[in-house]
Recover the amino acids of this structure.
C-alpha cells in the first residue's frame, strides 16, 4: 500500500511542512551555501562540562526520582526553583502552584491553543509573528488577526482600534499573543508605555494575553526595558511562557507556563494525554543549573557573544544593502527582519535561485505574516554562523536584491 491519505485526520491533513525545516534539510548537504535561515543557538555556547557534571550527579545521587515517572505539572522542587528564578530575574511573583513545566515552550503554545481556542475564535498577534505559534493556533481553527509593528514592536493604538472593531462586530477574541521583548522574527522590544497599554486593553475588553519570552535573558542594548508584561498584570490576565532553550540548551526541551491557578490546572489536564509529563531528568538538571548559579552566569555571557554577531550583520547590511530595503535593528533575539521595497519582489520564489546561484539561504517572510502578505520579506538569522560568514552571507543577499529586484 502506498497511499494512506484516506486514513489521515482532517486536522493532520491541514498541516504543511515547515518551510524552515525543509530549507535546513536541503542546505545541510550544501557546504558552499551560507545559511542565514535557521534560528538555532550557536553550539559553542552550550555549557557542556557543567551540564555533564550536573547530569551525572542527578543520575547517580537522585536516580530513584530523576529516572522515574513524575507529576504532569512538573516536579514540585523544580517548580519552586522556577518560582524563585522568575522573581529574581524578572520580578514576576508567582507560586509554584501557578507554574506548569512544559516540553519546551512550543508545547506551551500547543497546550494554550488546545485549551483556549475553539474553531473560529480570533487570536491577535504581531504581524509578523513567530511561525510555529501561528501554526499551533491555526491548527486549532483560530482566525489570526495581525497588528503591524514598527521599530518598537506592536503598535498598541492600532491594537486597540482593531479590538474595538472586532468586539463591535460581535467577534470572539480569545487572546493577544505577543513576544514583547526580543521579538521573533523582528528583534523589536516594546517600551514600558506600550506594555502598560497592552495590558490595559486586555482589561478593558476582557481578553487574555499570552506573553512569550524566550529571549529577554540576554539583550544587546542595556537601556532597553526588559520588564515582562506579567509584572503589569493586576487582574491576572497574562499567561507567561519561557524556556531554557536559548539560555542553556534547546535539546533539554524544558520550558514553563506561569498562569493563574485555574488555567494552570486546565493546562495540566490537557497535558496529561500529550506526554504524561516533561522529561524528569531534564527537569532536575534545569533546577540544579538554576540553583547552582549556572544559568545566571551563562546568561551573562550570551549577550556579548551574540551582540558581536548582531553587530556584524547590521554593519554588513549598512555597507552592502541598497536603499530600497527596510530592516529591523534587533535589541534581542537572533533575527533581522527585512522588507525589500520593490513591487513583485518575492522571496519565496527567489529562494531556489538564492541557494543555487547566490549560495545563500534565508527564510521567506510570508509565513510569519497573518494576512498572506509579506512576500517581499525575509528573516535573516545571525545566531549560528561566525561573524565573517555572516558578513559574506549579507554580501551575497545584497547581490540577490540588487540583481533580482
Ligand atoms: C518566540 C518563540 N517562542 C517559542 C519558541 C520555542 O522554544 P522551545 O525551544 O522552548 O520550544 C521559540 C524558538 O525559537 C521562539 O522563538
Amino acid at each position: 500500500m502506498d497511499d494512506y491519505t484516506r486514513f489521515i485526520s482532517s486536522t493532520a491533513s491541514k498541516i504543511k511542512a515547515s518551510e524552515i525545516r525543509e530549507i535546513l534539510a536541503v542546505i545541510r548537504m550544501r557546504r558552499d551555501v551560507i545559511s542565514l535561515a535557521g534560528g538555532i543557538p550557536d553550539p559553542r555556547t552550550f555549557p557542556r562540562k557543567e551540564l555533564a557534571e550536573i547530569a551525572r550527579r542527578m543520575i547517580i545521587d537522585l536516580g530513584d526520582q530523576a529516572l522515574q515517572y513524575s507529576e504532569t505539572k512538573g516536579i514540585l522542587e523544580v517548580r519552586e526553583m522556577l518560582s524563585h528564578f522568575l522573581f529574581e530575574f524578572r520580578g514576576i511573583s508567582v507560586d509554584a502552584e501557578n507554574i506548569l513545566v512544559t516540553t519546551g515552550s512550543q508545547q506551551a503554545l500547543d497546550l494554550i491553543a488546545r485549551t483556549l481556542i475553539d474553531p473560529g475564535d480570533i487570536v491577535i498577534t504581531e504581524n509578523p509573528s513567530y511561525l510555529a505559534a501561528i501554526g499551533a493556533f491555526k491548527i486549532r481553527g483560530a482566525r489570526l488577526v495581525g497588528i503591524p509593528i514598527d521599530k518598537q514592536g506592536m503598535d498598541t493604538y492600532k491594537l486597540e482600534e482593531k479590538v474595538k472593531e472586532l468586539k463591535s462586530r460581535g467577534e470572539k477574541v480569545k487572546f493577544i499573543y505577543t513576544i514583547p521583548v526580543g521579538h521573533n522574527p523582528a528583534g523589536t522590544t516594546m517600551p514600558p508605555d506600550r506594555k502598560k497599554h497592552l495590558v490595559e486593553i486586555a482589561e478593558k475588553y476582557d481578553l487574555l494575553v499570552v506573553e512569550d519570552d524566550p529571549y529577554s535573558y540576554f539583550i544587546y542594548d542595556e537601556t532597553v526595558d526588559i520588564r515582562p508584561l506579567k509584572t503589569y498584570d493586576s487582574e491576572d490576565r497574562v499567561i507567561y511562557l519561557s524556556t531554557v532553550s536559548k539560555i542553556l540548551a534547546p535539546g533539554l526541551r524544558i520550558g514553563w507556563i506561569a498562569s493563574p491557578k485555574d488555567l494552570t490546572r486546565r493546562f495540566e489536564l490537557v497535558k496529561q494525554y500529550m506526554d504524561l509529563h516533561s522529561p524528569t531528568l531534564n527537569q532536575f538538571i534545569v533546577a540544579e543549573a538554576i540553583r547552582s548559579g549556572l544559568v545566571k552566569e551563562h546568561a551573562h555571557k550570551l549577550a556579548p557573544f551574540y551582540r558581536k554577531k548582531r553587530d556584524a550583520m547590521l554593519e554588513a547590511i549598512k555597507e552592502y544593502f541598497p536603499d530600497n530595503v527596510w530592516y529591523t535593528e534587533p535589541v534581542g533575539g537572533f533575527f533581522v527582519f527585512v522588507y525589500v521595497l520593490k513591487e513583485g519582489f518575492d522571496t519565496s520564489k527567489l529562494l531556489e535561485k538564492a541557494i543555487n546561484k547566490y549560495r545563500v539561504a534565508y527564510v521567506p517572510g510570508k509565513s510569519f505574516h497573518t494576512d498572506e502578505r509579506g512576500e517581499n520579506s525575509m528573516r535573516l538569522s545571525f545566531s549560528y554562523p561566525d561573524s565573517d560568514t555572516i558578513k559574506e552571507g549579507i554580501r551575497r543577499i545584497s547581490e540577490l536584491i540588487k540583481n533580482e529586484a
Notes: The chain has two domains: 5-46+297-404, 63-294.
